[in-house]
Automatic annotation (TrEMBL):
Coiled coil: none annotated. The chain crosses the membrane at residues 144-165. It comes from Myxococcus fulvus (strain ATCC BAA-855 / HW-1). Pfam families: Coq4. Keywords: Membrane, Transmembrane, Transmembrane helix. This is Ubiquinone biosynthesis protein. The keyword Membrane applies. GO terms for biological process: ubiquinone biosynthetic process. InterPro entries: Coq4. It comes from the Bacteria.
Amino acid sequence: MWNPVAYAWTAWRMARAIRDPEELQDVLGLAPVLAPPTAMRRLVERLMRHASAAQAFIERPRVGLLHLAALRALPEHTLGRAFADHLEANRVDPHALPSLEAHTDEEYVRAHLLESHDVWHVLTGFPTSVAGELGLQAFSLAQVGSPFALGVLAGGLTNTLLYAFSQREERMRAIVRGWLLGQRARLLFGAPWRQMWESPLTEVRQRYGLDLAAVDAVLDDPMRPAMEARNPGSASAPQSC
């Protein structure tokens, strides 16, 4: 049944999120609207087509309670140490990170994506700026087809148009970078991050096909892929004098 009060509240919250995309609670509060139950069910069905995701729905790995001191004690360049450095650099209290219950597959998708958010920041190299968050949402959209991610991107682009047009290049570059990374990488959904804290960050990135340097090279020279497609092997062909 249509509830005008709830509709007005949602519209107000959406307007606030567009005006100030750094207001995390307003953005997260839109999740039920941007990703309603029917959309979440379709998302689960799409993810089930991937063997790794189907296994994750059975095992349901969670990040769980974070012990920052233990993560900080890990060797440099490990995933866990990089994650701890990320939390400290952004003044994030690990005990304040949201942890949702997950009794259904749809709830598990929400919970896992939410608690993996900062891990994905570390793996993709995106900062926590507005541009970085938009880039990460583009990555999420490419990876899992999240309607929430698409909604955040739409809001971010609206914010760019109305309030931050001077930041359009930085934000669009981040969005394109996130999309390319997400398209090229193996599926990260359902990854057992707790089992990988001690693994080297470069090794984890390689495991999931996250080639940051290759994508950044494409963005720095956008004509390179087209030229190589038209002239295969030209890059390695010897030049004649």
